[in-house]
Amino acid sequence: MDFNLINLIKLNLIYKKKIIKYKFYKKNINIIKILINLNIIKYVKKNNTNIFIYLNNFYKKNYLNSFYKPSNSIFLKIKIIKKITLKKKWIFLISTNKGILTNFEAIKKNIGGLLILKIRNG
Description:
8 strands
């Protein structure tokens, strides 16, 4: 998985840029689909080797928090995910053995995993 895409989206939202040009990788499709469903990304255009991501600019600096660090990985068990989800202020992206899921999808599938990204809801 390419975590540079998440950091690039976060930085472009901070600096209020609308278009990101990035090299296309198949492994990033799941992250892009989830961010489109969460209304962070408007739409995506694909060229031969590049992908152009158009962002919604109503997100502010504190709406996205990246948690992935190879030296300090945070693993969440399903019990912790359920406790955190009760407050419904945040949406988490969790990397599991079933792919990248939001915290709501992880609860439905009863799976824990590695915390990647925290998104403020509202």
